[in-house]
Amino acid sequence: MKKILFIILILLAAGCINKSPQSEKAFISYMNILQEKGEFLQFLGHKGNDGKITEFAPYFVDSAKKIEFQIIETKEDKDRSVITILIKSPDLGYYDSLPNDPEIDFEKRVNSKIALMKEALKQKDLKFQEKTISVYMILSKDKQWVLDSIDKNEEFIDIINHKIF
Fold it and tell me: Which helix (H) or strand (E) element contains residue 55?
């Protein structure tokens, strides 16, 4: 009987240890999907593939796989959450030497940028940017944690978008 009681207490204690806020769990899940498939739209509450991103920026998935992050703190209050993270992402802007000239045909500029970014990701001494930032999330009407407004999360989006355009 003592052994059974002891096992139950251990299981209860183990269950109480990982009480991460739901917004933090959603953020980690979204980051995993981003890194595996290059899908960003699920951060905004959409389902499915980000066809436009992967079509216009096929290097995005390779770059997303190189992102590292560590959650420092999560403050969740009812339907709002602020997750403070340390994030390290390829600094593709460092390699971007193409002028953003509106006179150049869009398709030609995109294809040039794609080639440049693919090559940058192959660098042995790939440059990274590292920042501590806050990610703001809200609980949607369908009770799903998603990114708050783009304006509030501009720094996060900038660091994960890898200088797509």
Answer: helix 51-56
Q: Edge-to-edge strand order for the sheet containing 145-147? A: 68-77, 80-90, 128-139, 145-147
CA distance 131 to 158: 11
Q: Which residue, 89, 71, 69, is CA-closest to 164? A: 89
Residue 43 CB burial class (10 angstroms; 0-12, 13-18, ≥19):
buried
The pLDDT tens digits of the residues spanning 88-115 come to 999 888 887 777 777 778 778 778 888 8
Residue of 127, 131, 144, 118 whose CA lies nearest to 56:
118
Q: The tokens 């994030």 sit on which residue?
A: 87
pLDDT tens for residues 38-63? 777 777 777 766 666 666 667 788 88
What are the structural domains of the chain? 20-160 (3.10.450)
Q: Residue 72 is inside which H or E element, if any?
A: strand 68-77
AA identity, residue 84: T
CB neighbour class for 24 (10 Å; exposed up to 12, middle 13-18, buried from 19): buried
Burial tier of 125 (Cβ tally within 10 Å: 0-12, 13-18, 19+): exposed
